[in-house]
């Protein structure tokens, strides 16, 4: 596997575009397109929130259906969530307009929305935006980059990644993706839209299995603020343009595909967590020495979700008691008197506690380590061979500044 430049247009046969449709923002693009002339197989995972946005409900039907997928239309600014029958009708109108403009079945048009909950989509502007997208769609990395920027809301940076690998028959396959996400981020999917494209020829079963299995260890292991959104969507499209021998579930090439997909998903997850609203640092937590993967996951997520711990990271304060506390209320059983804890960053590594109590460490060195843009905590509970990693960010006043008046 090799990391390469690009995002959703890195794979063969995918086009992208962006447009300023005036959905909510002024002076910036707010619509994006992903397009493949060759029909795609689609897999998806969606929010676990009972309150689901209209586009989530629409996409769930498309992914479960048999219609060929060619088009994804995405808008930022308005989430089309909690909008009732009118919101669902706007999804239908969007699909019909895209079907007419691109000459594809409306049952295979995927839709994404992100932004303010409760507002209705200005449908005529959105429909006009579809024509703008169709007229400006292009191949190439720049088109994908502009699409990634168009779907941002409170994000401070676009999020893209691409990799390639070689199948057993010698064919090169590419997987690329783009995402947005900064707030309303919590395990079990978050306010994030993630779109992944691949030119692999692969069965629908293999595509779906690979995505659903990997989400558990990537997107579902991130948290910014503990709020599971109404709009979470991860879509994976495969158009088969690479021309490889078809990848089937359980094959050697399937394992290569899974590895590459995991890299894409993990990279996107870390980009989202590190760009949390108001954040100054990516906070990565690994729990090792666990008796089971489930135990490690529960403990890692509890630490990364702790507001007190996140505030300590923001203050560059090695307040390890908050980490042990978060582990203690997680629901997972462990012996606190056997825990070793380390902090790491590009400034070095430092053990903070050994067997549940403080060791003799330098507060100045700890502060230096915790002052970096990427900070890691490693907790060894000495119960087994399993481990898990979760990602989050520090908690600053900037989070309040962004969310206190987000709607108004």
What is the secondary structure topology, with strand pairs?
Layout: E1 2-4, E2 14-19, E3 31-46, H1 54-64, E4 69-78, H2 84-102, E5 109-116, H3 123-136, H4 141-150, E6 159-166, E7 172-181, E8 192-198, H5 204-215, E9 233-238, H6 252-274, E10 282-290, H7 293-305, H8 307-314, H9 320-328, E11 340-345, E12 348-354, E13 357-358, H10 363-370, E14 374-380, E15 386-393, H11 397-403
Parallel strand pairs: 4-5, 8-9, 10-14
Antiparallel strand pairs: 1-6, 2-3, 3-4, 3-9, 6-7, 7-8, 10-15, 11-12, 11-14, 12-13
In short:
The protein has 408 residues and is α+β, with helices and mostly antiparallel strands.
Describe the structure.
The chain is of the alpha+beta class. It has helices at 54-64, 84-102, 123-136, 141-150, 204-215, 252-274, 293-305, 307-314, 320-328, 363-370, 397-403; strands spanning 2-4, 14-19, 31-46, 69-78, 109-116, 159-166, 172-181, 192-198, 233-238, 282-290, 340-345, 348-354, 357-358, 374-380, 386-393. α1 (54-64) crosses α2, α2 (84-102) runs parallel beside α3 (123-136) and α5 (204-215) packs across α6 (252-274). It is globular, with a radius of gyration of 22 Å.
């Amino acid at each position: 596997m090799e990391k390469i430049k690009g995002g959703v247009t890195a794979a063969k046969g995918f086009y992208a575009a962006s447009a300023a449709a005036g959905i909510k923002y002024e002076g910036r693009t707010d619509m994006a397109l992903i397009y493949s002339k060759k029909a795609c197989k689609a897999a998806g995972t969606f929010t676990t929130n009972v309150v689901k946005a209209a586009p989530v409900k629409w996409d769930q039907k498309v992914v479960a259906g048999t219609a060929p997928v060619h088009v994804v239309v995405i808008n930022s600014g308005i989430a089309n969530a909690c909008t009732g029958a009118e919101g669902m009708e706007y999804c239908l109108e969007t699909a019909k307009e895209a079907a007419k403009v691109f000459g594809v079945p409306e049952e295979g048009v995927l839709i994404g929305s992100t932004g303010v909950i409760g507002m209705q989509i200005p449908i005529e502007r959105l429909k006009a935006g579809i024509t703008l997208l169709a007229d400006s769609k292009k191949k190439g990395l720049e088109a994908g980059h502009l699409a990634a920027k168009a779907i941002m809301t409170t994000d401070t940076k676009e999020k893209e990644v691409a990799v390639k690998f070689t199948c057993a028959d010698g064919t090169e396959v590419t997987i690329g993706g783009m995402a947005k996400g900064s707030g309303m981020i919590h395990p079990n999917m978050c306010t994030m839209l993630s779109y992944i494209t691949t030119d692999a020829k692969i069965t629908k079963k293999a595509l779906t299995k690979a995505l659903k299995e990997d989400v558990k260890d990537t997107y579902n292991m991130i948290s910014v603020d503990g709020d599971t959104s109404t709009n979470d969507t991860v879509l994976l499209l495969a158009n088969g343009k690479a021309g490889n021998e078809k990848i089937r579930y359980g094959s050697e090439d399937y394992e290569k595909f899974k590895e590459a997909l995991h890299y894409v998903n993990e990279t996107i997850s870390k980009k989202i967590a590190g760009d949390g609203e108001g954040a100054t640092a990516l906070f990565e937590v690994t729990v090792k020495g666990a008796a089971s993967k489930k135990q490690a996951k529960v403990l890692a997520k509890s630490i990364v979700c702790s507001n007190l711990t996140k505030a300590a990271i923001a203050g560059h304060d090695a307040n390890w008691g908050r980490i042990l506390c978060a582990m203690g209320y997680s629901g997972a059983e462990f012996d606190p008197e056997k825990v070793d804890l380390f902090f790491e960053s590009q400034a070095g590594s430092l053990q903070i506690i050994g067997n549940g109590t403080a060791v003799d460490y330098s507060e100045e060195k700890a502060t230096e380590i915790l002052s970096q843009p990427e900070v890691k905590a490693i907790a060894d509970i000495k119960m087994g061979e399993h481990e898990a990693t979760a990602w989050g960010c520090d908690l600053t006043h900037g989070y309040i500044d962004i969310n206190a008046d987000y709607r108004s």
